[in-house]
Design goal:
There is one protein chain. It contains seven helices and 35 strands. It has a domain of 62 residues: Zinc/RING finger domain, C3HC4 (zinc finger) (Herpes Virus-1, 2-Layer Sandwich), CATH 3.30.40.10. With 702 residues, it is of the alpha+beta class. Helix 5 crosses helix 6. A hairpin with a 6-residue loop joins strand 29 and strand 30. It comes from Oryzias latipes. It is an enzyme of class 2 (transferase). InterPro entries: RFWD3 (IPR037381), WD40/YVTN_repeat-like_dom_sf (IPR015943), WD40_repeat_dom_sf (IPR036322), WD40_RFWD3 (IPR056527), WD40_rpt (IPR001680), Znf_RING (IPR001841), Znf_RING/FYVE/PHD (IPR013083).
């Protein structure tokens, strides 16, 4: 049972009873246990008898003012005029009647105050001073007692002790009841606080971990946080960090903190949701998505491999059919010698090369020359009068001589000679004329085309086109004219005798794509295609500008594919052009289509003849083509037939086909994608030059 704080008088006074002076023994403080929910003192006769039989004593340090037995009040001595401050032992409280009540003849009421069970018990030897209000009550009670004792006279109008006793008793009893009610309310509050504190988990997230008080949304104890993320009341954490000084740490995680790390949070109610399951589901979803992407990538790779195998299988089937046809033809012949000779004669060039490799000529590796260590090479050209190859590259000394130029490579000793600076930006086209005057025509992205004399290594003429120039070429019918293909799809015609500006502009019909390639077809005594003109190839198709006379050009749109055209080259003698298409949706491989230029005859004077082209042979390459490469079509060094050469980015090699049969003759390896190919003839020997971004390789026909 809990010890409760009860205020009870030592002697129960009844109204109208005469109170006899108590004995001299002091009354002792007693602790009354609470047997029930009521805090009032039971007034049973047995308890009164027990209290009377048991003498109670007070410590000798207490002093009381006693009244005379006959009813006369004893006045305090003169030396005790000032009020005396008394010190009370813990657990006791002196109760005095109010100031308006009459003087009491008996002892003052003593009440026992027992602390609640939830409060900590003080040390046994500690003492507690009386509060200021209680000291004031003591002083007023003593003053009223002394004044009443001095003013009372035998025949006066003052109330007699017999009349004052009922008032004092009633006041004492009422004060006892009030204190009992207060004690009962205090006990009930203590029980309520215990009930509230019994469930700390409910308010665990709403209290400050320093003072264990609820934080607020405004004021000094508002919600705040440190950089580590723990929450506190602002005043508590501010005092905490200030008290610790420079070695301040977070009260919860002991991480270093300072007062500037305090951040105020503006949240009416803060709760943390448990999203661990959601995060685990997200991680599993990401893993599944990554595995799915990996599987899709592998599936796409296997599809490409399947297409390559299918293509090879088709070629093998075609060759097998050719071999079966040849075997059938040889079986009809009676003589074995004639059979072997006829079979070898009827074999295509590719098959004869495979059957008898000793008699089949091909290109063999001759020399590899490093042109640029940093890379940046783009186009290639051969100068017949000087017997040297020219490869475009950035300046090897960009700080001293910025820009781009060409590097010379002598084919006599296979060594590089010198670098010639020409343009300020990348060079996209190089070309020589048929006069063998060693004038190099170059086009660059710095909006200019220039004529450079390789005899003196100086620029002799510059034309400003106003837009980046992507390609250039000479007029093979008149060496005084040059062409420049611009980035907006138009072609400018320049006269080398006029150094001011261009003499004519050939505007495209619909396409505004850059002119990636320019080739001139000279006039010839041919029945199928006798006219001459310029073929301009853009990324969206091609157009043949027929040269009617020196000042008139008639456009003819070639029936090419709408997209993917990266290069057009012409073989002047056979009147064939080679169109290169990059891989697309319909055709996933690089394709080089050999076209035959044709011209429809003129029916009447009102209808003009039209020029067109028709496909002759298609050559397939790899599945990758990201760069604008330049290919080649030329007469075979063997003396008959035509060869087609193209760079393959997928395998970093140069592929050589026979234009007549469409079979692959050779595959020349390279370290990087081949950007330009140039065949040339010197000292009775045929060579093939291939250019990558850094390296130039030479192959000799043997």
């Amino acid at each position: 049972m809990e010890a409760m704080e009860v205020d009870s008088a030592v002697d129960v006074l009844a109204e109208g009873l005469e109170i006899a002076p108590p004995p001299e023994e002091f009354i002792e403080s007693r602790s009354i246990s609470d047997s029930g929910s009521s805090t009032e003192v039971d007034e049973d006769d047995e308890e009164e008898q027990r209290a009377a039989q048991t003498p109670v004593r007070l410590p000798s340090t207490w002093a009381f003012s006693q009244r005379a037995v006959g009813g006369a009040a004893v006045a305090p001595p003169a030396s005790q005029g000032a009020p005396i401050q008394r010190r009370l032992r813990q657990g006791l409280r002196v109760h005095y009647p109010s100031q308006t009540a009459g003087p009491s003849r008996g002892f003052p009421d003593f009440h026992l105050r027992a602390p609640a069970a939830s409060m900590a018990e003080p040390e046994s030897g500690s003492t507690t001073e009386v509060s200021e209000s209680e000291e004031d009550e003591e002083r007023r009670g003593e003053e009223s007692t002394s004044n009443a004792a001095q003013d009372v006279e035998p025949g006066g109008s003052a109330s007699t002790p017999q009349q004052a006793e009922p008032q004092e008793a009633s006041a004492s009893i009422s004060a006892t009841v009030v204190d009992s009610e207060r004690t009962e309310g205090t006990v009930q509050d203590c029980r309520t606080s215990q009930v509230q504190s019994s469930s700390p988990e409910e308010n665990e997230g709403d209290t400050c971990t320093i003072c264990f008080e609820s934080w607020t949304t405004a004021g000094e104890h508002r919600l705040s946080a440190l950089r580590c993320g723990h929450l506190f009341g602002y005043t508590c954490i501010h005092r905490w960090l200030k008290a610790q000084g420079s070695a301040a740490k977070c009260p919860q995680c002991n991480k270093k903190a300072k007062r500037s790390d305090i951040v105020l949070l503006y949240a009416p109610k803060l709760r943390a949701l448990d999203n661990s399951e959601q995060e685990s589901l997200k991680k599993s979803l990401e893993q599944e998505q990554s595995l799915r992407r990996k599987a899709e990538l592998e599936s796409a790779q296997y599809k490409l491999k399947l297409q390559v195998v299918t293509t090879k299988y088709g070629h093998a089937q075609q060759e097998l059919q050719e071999l079966r046809a040849l075997i059938a033809q040889t079986g009809r012949s009676s003589a074995p010698s004639s059979t072997s000779s006829s079979s070898s004669a009827s074999l295509p060039f590719s098959l004869s090369q495979r059957v008898d490799g000793s008699r089949a000529a091909q290109y063999s590796f001759s020399k590899a020359v490093l042109v640029s260590q940093a890379g940046g090479c783009r186009v290639l050209a051969y100068c017949d009068p000087l017997s040297c190859l020219l490869a475009s590259q950035p300046s090897p000394h960009s700080t001293l001589v910025p820009g781009c130029g060409v590097k010379k490579l002598s084919v006599v000793n296979m060594k590089t000679s010198q670098y010639v600076p020409i343009h300020s930006k990348q060079i996209r086209g190089l070309s020589f004329n048929t006069r063998n005057d060693s004038l190099l025509l170059s086009a660059a992205l710095d909006n200019t085309i220039k004529l450079t004399s390789l005899l003196t290594n100086t620029v002799v003429q510059t034309y400003n086109a106003g837009k980046p120039v992507w390609s250039c070429c000479w007029c093979l019918d008149n060496s005084n004219y040059i062409y420049a293909g611009l980035s907006n799809g138009s072609v400018l015609l320049y006269d080398t005798r006029d150094t001011s500006t261009h003499v004519q502009e050939l505007l495209p019909a619909c396409s505004r794509c850059p002119v990636a390639s320019l080739c001139y077809v000279p006039r010839a005594a041919s029945t199928s295609f006798p006219c001459g003109g310029l073929i301009a190839g853009s990324l969206e198709g091609g157009c043949f500008w027929e040269q009617v006379n020196e000042a008139t050009y008639r456009p003819h749109v070639l029936p090419l594919e709408n997209a993917g055209c990266i290069d057009i080259q012409v073989e002047a003698e056979s009147r064939h052009c080679l169109v290169t298409y990059r891989p697309g949706r319909s055709n996933p491989f690089l394709r080089c289509v050999l076209m035959s230029l044709t011209r429809s005859p003129q029916q009447d004077s009102s209808q003009l003849p039209s020029c067109s082209c028709s496909p002759v042979q298609t050559f397939s390459g790899g599945s990758s083509c990201k760069l604008l490469t330049k290919n080649a079509v030329f007469k075979s060094p063997a003396g008959s037939g035509t060869l087609v050469c193209a760079g393959d980015e997928a395998s970093n090699s140069t592929m050589i086909w026979d234009a007549g049969s469409g079979s692959l003759l050779q595959k020349l390896p390279a370290d990087l994608p081949v950007l330009d190919i140039n065949p040339f003839y010197v000292n009775g020997e045929h060579f093939l030059a291939t250019l990558t971004e850094k390296m130039l390789k030479l192959y000799k026909w043997e």
